[in-house]
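Researcher: We plan to redesign the surface later, but first we want a full-length starting point. Tokens attached.
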């Protein structure tokens, strides 16, 4: 009897260990209301390429969250700039340990959620892990042009590249009003090149499907630059092989963006399906490969899905779109973001998911690939679901960063109409543990839902 009791105790302890191992801990970064009455949205995050214990995140309008101990403790500060700080936060790191915070500017201080004067892109630099920031530099043109939805990347030499959408007048219904994708570069973050137009085709100013939006740059180890965006029902690519001096005369149409990038998902005031582009900067077989992720409704308006495609020849050819979410058809997955760990080439995609419910309850999932995008596994990383409200602004994106096996997604959730920002510090072994423990139960629940 004693031996049997000991065996039972060993098995019980082992089961408990598996359960703990499988738990993805969610960390609250911010749920506070700003002085202007806004709750945080649209998070961004970057891991230091010098020390992966140093992580900096941000959220709209002006929030900064930083940690130097791998996420055990976080410091929350607010960014200030001589040009003002006005949303669309973008956090990136370079290979020297510096962080850069890109954002919009609106010195007029109008209502953030209305059609404001978004007069320029601003960059601010931190040399101390997000503790302090410089006063900021202006990128792009001053009024009357409006700037929106910037994103940026740094190459291994320290050069910085930024792309965004410029409007003649943001939100204008005038059919003569134009918008286009712009590009600028800098060798040090202080002095920026005169912006040049990348998009072959102009769009309107309505900030809708016929507006070119979602320009995300990617750069290879040898300095080749790539930019993807969505416009008029297609995802487009432009590229430069000489540091951004010259670009293609004809943009490459990668794939049809069925229904456009402005998607309708119940419970959200708007849902962005814009593409996100990254380059594999590992030293493996797929070094230089391009990975693209986006959301669309090619399977119907009640079935938003996350899609992935890969190019191994600089964007000339792309694999057929691969559906990333592995649930049964008929639910919504939306707002994806992708990153590649430059130390090993592993691919990670974070997104929102409703596969487990028949209503608007929403989870956060992470899809990951250890074979350069050949196959993906899906893991639920949020501890509990939330329900958004369509009369409250939820934001246009999530974000994720990965380095040396550490994966840091950031996302927003909404409870009782109030948004908050969350993260997790994840190792690959954590994901494998969750997968082994929970996949069968999740798929069983999804199938039961589809039958009902």
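Model: Full-length starting sequence:
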């Amino acid at each position: 009897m004693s031996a049997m009791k000991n065996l039972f105790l060993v098995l019980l302890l082992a089961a408990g260990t598996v359960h703990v191992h499988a738990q993805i801990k969610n960390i609250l970064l911010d749920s506070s209301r700003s002085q202007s009455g806004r709750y945080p949205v649209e998070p961004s995050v970057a891991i230091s390429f010098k020390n992966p214990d140093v992580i900096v995140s941000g959220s709209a309008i002006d929030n900064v969250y930083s940690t130097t101990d791998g996420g055990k403790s976080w410091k929350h500060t607010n960014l200030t700039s001589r040009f003002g700080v006005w949303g669309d936060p973008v956090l990136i790191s370079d290979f020297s340990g510096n962080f850069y915070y890109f954002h919009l500017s609106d010195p007029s201080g109008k209502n953030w959620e209305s059609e404001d004067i978004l007069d320029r892109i601003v960059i601010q630099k931190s040399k101390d892990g997000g503790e302090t920031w410089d006063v900021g530099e202006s990128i792009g043109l001053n009024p009357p042009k409006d700037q929106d939805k910037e994103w940026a990347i740094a190459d291994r030499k320290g050069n910085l590249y930024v792309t965004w959408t410029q409007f003649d007048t943001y939100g204008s219904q005038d059919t003569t009003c134009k918008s286009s994708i712009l590009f600028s570069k800098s060798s040090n973050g202080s002095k920026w090149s005169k912006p040049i137009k990348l998009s072959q085709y102009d769009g309107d100013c309505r900030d809708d499907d016929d507006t070119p939006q979602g320009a995300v740059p990617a750069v290879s180890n040898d300095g080749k630059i790539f930019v993807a965006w969505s416009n008029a029902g297609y995802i487009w690519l432009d590229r430069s092989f000489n540091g951004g001096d010259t670009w293609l005369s004809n943009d490459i149409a990668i794939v049809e963006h069925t229904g456009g990038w402005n998607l309708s998902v119940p419970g959200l005031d708007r849902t962005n399906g814009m593409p996100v582009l990254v380059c594999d900067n590992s030293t493996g077989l797929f070094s230089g490969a391009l990975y693209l992720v986006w959301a669309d409704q090619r399977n119907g308006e009640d079935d938003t899905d996350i899609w992935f495609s890969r190019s191994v020849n600089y964007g000339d050819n792309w694999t057929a779109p691969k559906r990333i979410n592995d649930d049964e058809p008929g639910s919504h997955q939306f707002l994806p973001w992708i990153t590649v760990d430059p130390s090993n080439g592993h691919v990670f995609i974070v997104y929102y998911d409703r596969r487990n419910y028949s209503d608007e309850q929403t989870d956060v999932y992470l899809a990951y690939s250890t074979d350069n995008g050949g196959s993906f596994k899906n893991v639920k990383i949020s501890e509990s679901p939330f329900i958004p409200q369509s009369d409250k602004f939820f934001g246009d994106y999530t974000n994720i960063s990965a380095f040396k096996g550490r994966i840091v997604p950031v996302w927003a959730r909404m409870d009782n109409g109030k948004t908050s920002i969350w993260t997790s510090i994840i190792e690959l072994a954590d994901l494998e543990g969750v997968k082994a423990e929970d996949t069968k139960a999740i798929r069983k629940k999804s199938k039961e839902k589809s039958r009902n």
